[in-house]
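User
Take a look at the entry that follows and flag anything odd:
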Amino acid sequence: MNVDEILSSAINNLMDKRLDVAIELLEQLYVQRPTLIGHSELEAVKNDYQLMVDYMERGFTDDKRASLYLSLLQRLYRVAADLEISWRCKNVIVYVDAFRISDHLNTSHDFIRSVLESFVSDVAMLSLLPEAERTEKAKDLYDRHQVFLSTDSSILCGHLANGRMMIVRFIQD
């Protein structure tokens, strides 16, 4: 299996609450590529899972077992998601480009809000201009706005790829 297949399979197994299978898949990935991020957290999850299994095999009842298992699933999901984002930033051209572009732009919330609010007010002000001037200025205004939106999409994708903003799939009971 290649990296994409392993990551996809690991995430699917986590969504299906098969922690043991996901651990095995990610271990296989780290054997193939030992320099990838998150190896220590995988080992921590694996050790915590093994302790839980050992405790269960000894016949002890644990009221917190279900919540512990869910916590382990979530921790390992974060490892897998971080790996997937990191992998894509380095190997999927859309992510590589978006990351490169967004790393050099002003991406503050206040700046983006300011640009969008200015566009709205400029469009409103167009109605006060004579028809000929309005058409020319509207074209220029919308052209600039389209360029900004294209860049803004790269910013968003870059943030996702850079891990500054992460979409997290919650693992439900």
